[in-house]
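Q: I'm writing up a methods section and want to include an example of the input and output format. Could you take the sequence below and give the corresponding predicted structure tokens, formatted cleanly so I can copy it straight into the document?
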Amino acid sequence: MLNALRYELIRIRTLRSTWILLAASAAVQFLVAYMAAGHSDQTRLWRFVGSFNTTLPLVLLFPMAIVVGAFGHEYRYRTITTTILTLRSRPVVMASKAVISALLAAVTGVLLVGVTLLAQVLRGGAPDDWARIGQVLVAVVVYGVLSFLVGLGLAALTRNATVAMIVMLAVPTVVEGLLSNVLKLKEWWMAPFFSAASLVDSFKWQSPLPLTALAALVVVGAGTALVRRDV
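A: Here is the clean output for your methods example:
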């Protein structure tokens, strides 16, 4: 397993697109936070939290592409066979990609919170409620880990990075909004992405449960498909 993790980490780290997409995500978050910091009629804490309220799923799409490419590009460029032959175990391939994806999500969460604080410092000052900042950090990391795992699993199931990215763009931003506003389905468990993202506002332990269940279902399904089908 350690060799598999090292193999996957080297693969992601040596791709130029990894650093470009992370930089793009940080730049967009910095811009959002800088604009939010301009609301001088609001408290610093409100401006900090508001920097993540509605844009988090969109900002995370950039590093999401890295995770989706972990499988999507393997099938596109037909390197999946080499990966499986090198690591000699399909479950290990799936597990290593999931672990590295979760690690990338955690790093991304720290990066986004860091640039948000930097933007606020440059435009009037950051909040001094470090407990609340820590809660937001945990919320961003949890949402990132779970959504990245869903994206990874979809890419493995569909064997297509484009399809996975379209789903990961459409469901949090469009589909869940339609279910809530048009179809009047207000149950929190019907909107797993929105529910998990709401951790930023209200730190309720049950909020990420629907997305956790979805991520587990998709990853287990992707792992099962990877084991059973021809590559």
